[in-house]
Design a protein that fits this description.
The structure holds 2 protein chains of 2 kinds.
Chain A: H1 2-13, H2 26-39, E1 41-52, E2 55-66, E3 70-74, H3 81-87, E4 98-106, E5 109-110, H4 118-124, E6 125-128, H5 139-149, H6 155-168, H7 172-175, H8 188-201, E7 206-210, H9 218-231, E8 236-240, H10 244-250, E9 253-258, E10 261-267, H11 268-273, H12 278-284
Parallel strand pairs in A: 3-8, 3-9, 6-7, 7-8
Antiparallel strand pairs in A: 1-2, 1-4, 4-5, 9-10
Helix pairs in contact in A: 1-2, 5-6, 5-8, 6-8, 8-9
Chain B: H1 2-41, H2 43-49, H3 52-55, E1 59-60, E2 65-66, H4 69-100, H5 105-119, H6 122-144, H7 153-177, H8 181-189, H9 194-223, H10 226-232, H11 249-256, H12 263-298
Antiparallel strand pairs in B: 1-2
The chains are: A alpha/beta, B mainly alpha.
Chain lengths: 289, 299
């Protein structure tokens, strides 16, 4: 982002009547950055079409998501919402026969461009999966895993990052005395929060969540939802969910997918109180799906 | 009426189950039968040689002095050497088929090639070894400066490695495809490259399974007779280097059984068969225990 800001500072600052003469104070830099973020899309897809071999999974999806927002993707099973989520960290590339057309932009850069290194991209786009999937290692090593993959060896730094990430994921208090215990000894809800800590330990700017609470009990789910709300301050979050109440509770915007098409995308409030399309209306009132 | 009918079905059900059990029992009887036959037929030799049979290097039909140590060593050495040779290949091909080409034409081709390899009769491997491999190894031996027998421990192990490769490869491939997808995805999502995923997730997870597969392949290698007999050199002594000729338990049995005269000579060969049976059983047992452990870890 800094690079982009550097290029555009005149444009951003001048409308506010500030003379760009000397060094900008850090406050002003922050403000400018904030305004810049407001204006720019964090994530964007233009005419995206996806196929699994012959199956046309996504059709002409045009969507944009702002910085530091939570966007919920809802729709019946097989509607393409998970596929859509997974194009942002190119997880679908692992599936044989997957093909994508169109543009997928993060910070205005096409992530399917030739010069993009997939593993570098995935370091910037964290992911939390449907089933908690900690590695069969210690709690500490799970969170440190991403750092180690990235070649970080500084012990103190790793320790601090692990602690900070666990705190952010609201798990620190529960595990601080047993960091060397196997992660699989934790409860399902704790494991999922551990996975969130693992994902944010490498400081991504986007966090993708693929039905993160579907395997959890209501109390654990509530904790995760609360967490999502807090994480929004730092990350741009995309969440796939089957739970409509959850979408309504945690998200700023909601997108309704049906049979590979984006039917409606609007503010969550609008989608749930005053949807424009009949299909959306039918789905959220439980008439199908 | 209903009761009668259900009784009838119960009776039918029971007869069917009983007949299945009886047929299944035959399998166990065969195993026990072979073991008992071997045991009872080797009693004269056991009485004559005692524990010495296991530790002696003598093999003298004239004085009825028998020891199986060179053959035991020969068997274990050829098998272990073959395993060492097969390990990198089975790992590489297993990863290739289990991680990179899990389906599609490439993997189909490889799978049928592996099946065909497994189906080649061992005498053909033996011939191939004699006519192709032996001259090559002889020239290597000449250049290294050891006696150029051509045949010997190394040659036999080499052919054995090729023969057990299909088994090792298919088990390795299976174990590697069993690594849970969600763990691999977790690593990928943290920015791991494919190599890092293989190194840090796939291999640690499948290590024990691969080891078990190798052990099962070892079980096969231990018993392999024909090709080994043709290439091992059939010398009744403990080999002093890996090119030296040696002998294995199955090939001694195959070579000498027809000409064994006298109760003790015959009985000594049968005792060797018993020993081979036990060694193979132990190896198989260990392999299965490890696989069980592995399957448990998977959950």
């Amino acid at each position: 982002m800094n690079g982009l800001f550097g290029e555009r500072k005149r444009e951003v600052i001048n409308p506010n009547g500030v003379e760009v003469t000397g060094l900008l104070s850090s406050e002003m830099l922050k403000m400018a950055q904030y305004k810049e973020n407001e204006r720019m899309n964090k994530l964007q897809t233009k005419n995206v079409n996806c196929w699994y071999s012959d199956f046309h999974a996504l059709r002409d999806i045009n969507m944009e998501m702002k910085h530091n927002t939570v966007t919920a993707l809802i729709g019946p099973s097989g509607c393409g919402k998970s596929t859509y989520l997974r194009i942002f960290n190119r997880m679908n590339d692992l599936i044989e026969g997957f093909r994508l057309e169109g543009e997928v932009l993060i910070d205005n850069k096409d992530i399917f461009a030739k010069d993009i290194r997939i593993n570098e991209l995935r370091k910037k786009v964290g992911m939390v999966f449907q089933k908690p999937n900690p590695f069969p290692k210690s709690i500490f090593e799970n969170v440190a895993y991403g750092l180690r993959v990235n070649g970080v060896t500084h012990k103190k730094f790793i320790k601090e990052t692990v602690e900070r990430s666990l705190k952010q994921a609201a798990l620190w208090e529960e595990v601080k005395d047993k960091l060397d215990k196997n992660a699989l000894s934790l409860s399902g809800g704790q494991q999922q929060r551990l996975c969130i800590a693992r994902a944010i330990a490498i400081e991504p700017s986007v966090v993708l969540m693929d039905e993160p609470t579907s395997a959890l009990d209501p109390i654990s789910s509530a904790k995760i939802e609360e967490l999502i709300w807090e994480l929004k301050a730092k990350y741009t979050i995309l969440i796939v969910t089957h739970n409509m109440q959850q979408a309504a509770r945690v998200s700023d915007k909601t997108a309704f997918f049906y049979l590979g098409e984006l039917i409606e995308y609007d503010d969550t409030k609008t989608i749930f109180t005053n949807p424009k399309k009949e299909k959306t209306q039918n789905y959220i009132t439980g008439r199908f799906g | 009426m209903m009761a009668a009918k259900s009784n009838f079905f119960n009776a039918e059900e029971r007869t069917f189950r009983l007949s299945l059990s009886a047929i299944a029992l035959i399998l166990i009887l065969i195993l026990v039968g072979i073991f008992c036959t071997l045991l009872s037929a080797s009693i004269p030799s056991i009485q004559a040689s005692g524990w010495k049979f296991l530790f002696s290097s003598a093999w003298d039909p004239v004085t009825n002095d028998f020891g199986s140590l060179p053959f035991l060593v020969g068997t274990l050495l050829t098998s272990l050497l073959a395993l060492l040779m097969v390990l990198p290949f089975s790992l590489a091909i297993g990863l290739f088929l289990g991680e990179y080409y899990t389906e599609g034409r490439v993997s189909q081709t490889f799978k049928s090639v592996i099946e065909l390899l497994a189906g080649i009769p061992s005498v053909i491997y033996g011939f191939w070894g004699l006519f192709v491999l032996v001259p090559i190894i002889r020239s290597i031996e000449t250049s290294v400066g050891v006696i150029p027998y051509g045949i010997g421990l190394f040659t036999a192990s080499f052919v054995l490695a090729i023969m057990i490769m299909p088994y090792a490869v298919s088990i390795t491939r299976q174990v590697i495809t069993m690594v849970p997808r969600h763990l691999k995805e977790a690593a990928y999502s943290l920015g791991a490259t494919r190599y890092e995923v293989i190194q840090k997730v796939v291999l640690p997870f499948s290590r024990s399974g691969i080891f078990a597969g190798i052990l099962l392949a070892l079980g096969r290698a231990l018993g392999e007779t024909m090709a080994v007999t043709m290439l091992i050199g059939n010398t009744h002594s403990i080999p002093h280097n890996i090119f030296a000729p040696a002998n294995t338990m199955p090939s001694v049995i195959a070579n000498e059984f027809t000409e064994a005269v006298g109760t003790i000579y015959t009985s000594a060969l049968i005792e060797m068969a018993l020993l081979l049976f036990i060694v193979t059983a132990i190896v198989n047992f260990i392999g299965r225990q490890i696989i069980k452990q592995f399957a448990y870890d998977d959950k």
